[in-house]
Design goal:
Blueprint: E1 2-8, E2 11-16, E3 28-37, H1 39-47, E4 62-69, E5 81-83, H2 94-97, E6 135-138, E7 146-147, H3 154-157, H4 163-174, E8 181-185, H5 189-200, E9 205-210, H6 213-220, E10 225-228, H7 235-244, E11 253-256, H8 264-272, H9 285-289, H10 296-304, E12 310-313, H11 326-331, E13 335-338, H12 343-351, E14 368-371, H13 375-384, E15 392-395
Parallel strand pairs: 8-9, 8-11, 9-10, 11-12, 12-13, 14-15
Antiparallel strand pairs: 1-2, 3-4, 3-6, 3-15, 4-5, 5-7
Helix pairs in contact: 4-5, 4-12
Bound molecules: nicotinamide-adenine-dinucleotide and zinc ion (ZN) (2 copies).
Pfam family, one: ADH_zinc_N
Domain Alcohol dehydrogenase-like N-terminal: 25-145
Keywords: Metal-binding, Oxidoreductase, Zinc
Length: 396
């Protein structure tokens, strides 16, 4: 079969690889019909290269048709249409039972690994071949795959694998009061969807912050009050602008949908052109040890949120020694929640919104549909934010 493989920094290629097979009684194999490209793939493309092995198959946002199931997958049959969550969870351990599928104790990766195994996400997360491929082996298929009805296009359901539960959890963790205010930093697929979820869940005002014009426009068209980072001389000005809109306090909650330096040269260039995405200079020994833009969005989030407010971090932070401004967090009495989305925790709730009325606008959410064989170009376009690319779906 054909699959998107990682070969080196900013080098992905579509290669011929062996077809996956059932290995465990709880496995299924699906024929992939759509597979998303995610900001998390950009971490692999650009940043997490030390953890990659050339030939690793990428992708964690697939859906498709069940081809084959193992003997211990009672609820799936060949021909079923399913969306596959990005994390692999067992459904019967303490963590899964607590709705914390990303901490699944059965699939947890030991050694240098961390939480539950993930599709297409380096040896840190189990080195499981990913779903940007024609076929995918799905471990723990008695629990993970979400059955969806025939009829509507893939675009209706495919975001259940990641974008929707991630945005959903971001908003749940933000704890926005009914009618309250929330600012979303970063309007990539995750931030854009988080704005939409906040709106349908009853936020009074949603502020969206980014520096890519098409992304700002997209959010504005759906009623988000947008702020272009390029039009502020400093982060202070941005904070003041949002305070002006919120009785001088700042928003009740801030969602950081940026995360750590995933954006490579495109963002670096905008910074050189004067974009105010560097919140503050670190001083003293910190300044020598850490580059200042490393936690740009996090620092901005901490400064933006009102006293006593909530920060919901959905962007991925991977630093082992990142400095946290503890005095500010403590003094402002900020609550923080974070982590990968627990897909099965939210998927049934989300499904009730995936209707013909399409309140979240999922059916027009993708900006690009490309054949799997165009993956190298799709990665480059998405990373560089060219051609209005926000969400790219690949079709094997
Ligand atoms: P993306 O890279 O397309 O979006 C990030 C956006 O942030 C871009 O539009 C960029 O212009 C903007 N940006 C960069 N610096 C900024 C700053 N300082 N302030 C405001 N905006 C800034 O990626 P995405 O697919 O939307 O994913 C966003 C983040 O969420 C990534 O870190 C990704 O790894 C993470 N993610 C987490 C989960 C989870 O389970 N928690 C799941 C999926 C993705
Ligand atoms: Zn993803
Ligand atoms: Zn489990």
């Amino acid at each position: 079969m054909k699959a998107v493989t990682w070969q080196g920094k900013r080098d992905v290629r579509v290669e011929e690889v062996p077809d996956p097979k059932i290995q465990e009684p709880t496995d299924a194999v699906i024929r992939v019909t759509s597979s998303g490209l995610c900001g998390s793939d950009l971490h692999l493309y650009e940043v997490l290269t030390p953890f990659m092995t050339p030939g690793d198959i990428l992708g964690h946002e697939p859906m498709g048709i069940v081809e084959e199931v193992g003997p211990e997958v009672p609820d799936l049959r060949p021909g079923d249409r399913v969306v596959v969550p990005f994390q692999i969870a067992c459904g019967h351990c303490y963590m899964c039972g607590s709705g914390l599928q990303t901490q699944c104790e059965t699939t947890q990766v030991t050694g240098e690994g961390m939480g539950a195994a993930l599709f297409g996400y380096t040896r840190l997360y189990g080195a499981v071949p990913g779903g940007q491929a024609e076929y995918l082996r799905v471990p723990q298929a008695h629990y993970g795959p979400i059955k969806v009805p025939e009829g509507p296009p893939d675009d209706r359901f495919v975001y259940l694998s990641d974008v929707l539960p991630t945005a959903w959890q971001a908003v749940a963790y933000a704890g926005v009061p009914q009618g309250g205010t929330v600012a979303v930093l970063g309007l990539g697929p995750i931030g854009d969807m988080a704005c939409r979820v906040a709106q349908v869940k009853g936020a009074g005002r949603v502020f969206g912050i980014d520096l890519v014009p098409e992304r700002l426009r997209r959010a504005r068209e759906r009623g988000v009050e947008t702020y272009d980072l390029r039009s502020f001389d400093s982060e202070k000005e941005l904070v003041a602008a949002l305070q002006d809109e919120t009785d001088g306090r700042g928003p009740d909650a801030v969602i950081d949908a940026v995360g750590t330096e995933a954006h490579g040269s495109a963002i670096a260039k905008l910074v050189q052109q004067g974009a105010a995405i560097m919140p503050r200079k670190l001083s003293g020994p910190m300044a020598e040890r850490f580059s200042v833009d490393r936690l740009a969005a996090l620092y901005t989030a901490i400064d933006l949120v009102r006293r006593g407010g909530t920060l919901s971090l959905v962007g991925v932070y991977g630093g082992m020694a990142d400095p946290m401004p503890m005095l500010t967090l403590f003094d402002k009495q900020i609550q923080m929640r974070m982590g990968q989305a627990n897909v099965r925790r939210w998927s049934d709730d989300i499904l009730t919104y995936l209707t013909d009325e399409d309140p979240l606008g999922v059916q027009d959410f993708a900006t690009h549909h490309v054949p799997l064989t165009d993956a190298p170009h799709a990665y480059e376009m998405f990373q560089k934010k060219q051609d209005g690319a926000v969400k790219v779906l690949m079709r094997p």
